[in-house]
Amino acid sequence: MFVPPTADSDATLVARMASGDEHALGALYDRWATIVHTLAYYLLGQADDAEDTVEETFWQAWREAGKYDASRGAVSTWLSTIARSRALDRQRARRRRHEEPLESSASTSAEDSSARADSPTRAADPHREAEHAERARDIAAALSKLPAEQREVIELAYFGGLSQSEIAARTSLPLGTVKTRARLALEKLRAPLSQHREGSQ
Amino acid sequence: MSEPASHDAVRELLALDALDALSTLERRDLDVHLTTCDECRRELAHMRDGLASIVKSLPARAMAPERQTAMRARLLSHAIDDRTRVTPIRAPSRPSSTRWLAAAAFLIAAGAITYGVGQRGAVAQLASRIAALRDSASTMQRRLADQQSVLNALTGPGVRVIDASASSARQPYARMFWDQPTNHWTFVAYNLPAPAPGHTYQLWLVTRDQKKVSAGTFEPQPNGSAMVRATYALAHDSLAAIAVTNEPAGGSPQPTTTPFLVGAAAKTD
Questions:
Q1: From 1.10.220.10, 3.40.50.300, 3.40.960.10, 1.10.1740.10, which CATH number describes the A1-97 domain?
Q2: Is A93 touching B (CB cutoff 8 A)?
């Protein structure tokens, strides 16, 4: 881009951002914009909304760089958390406006078919239907190491933004079972990660 | 009062916290536990990293290169503006006279001399206290300077005043003092409810060509009052209004919600 690539670690870039260095923001953006956009796209399913989410994410990262705490996760995790939160805000706003009830939650579970039925746009837009199915397949593949019942909980919570009680209501499972499935799933997902917390790219 | 949740009970909550799916009560239990349990903090970090890694295994969806470049330029431009233009004020704290601090420092120093130079430990301790007092004195001086600057910005001969009000039950209201000769903006507001969790208030200067310039984010004091100060050069006839919106934490490059406080600026000749 406009400045030479930097070898600084992600954490160093965030520290530089906290001291007001906008070039560090540029470097972090160059490094992670595509990943953030990928997450936003899979959560929202619309290019414009996904791009707005990317911009909001890096802006929030700039404003809150001083609050980044490495003990709570890698910088890419921090960015993903911000992006997910901003994208879910948009997703919920859409639902409130009845534009797209639950369609973009990317859930592949059978239980949400009834919730989808009230979508006014769904039946009329086969292209979006196909895109939605493609996203759902990609997410299922990314979670393929998990048993189906655990995958469903992660899909609903991480990509659908549902709380534990909403998941329990949606799946007709007891709350305790939802908690257990979430824990088992994340224990499987976290295992290989203890070796490769990213620093610099 | 309920007893603190046990380590095992809290461990059950880590996965749901990583998924941001906890109830408010459970989150409170977990937050309390995390302040003292390194093991759970580490485990939670690994779970969060694990979740974030899902995204890396999804097929990448890149933005169009020209849009990505344009967004980068916008972000850096906003960051430069943010760094150079806006100086949020800290909440004023207990006023105090720096003279008391100076006198205290003098007495401590004098005491140290008369007490005996042989007592190095005591002298070092006193020196450290003097250094701390000097730091406090300089902090107080900065606060006094801040307060003087606020007074100047509110009472100068070139100050314009713009009122903003809302129609909700608690009737928040606000007043902006624009010291045009110095381009200092001082915004004071009252009766503001606390913003929703994860959100903040953001103040905007709306120009006559509908440009919205952020003047900073802020959160009210527990009593509902707030003050924001900013420095921003604006042509004297180009302000149309001031507005306050509710934005996600950290603020937004442009307003994303309808303003709940608006004040129109009278036209000047």
A1: 1.10.1740.10
A2: no
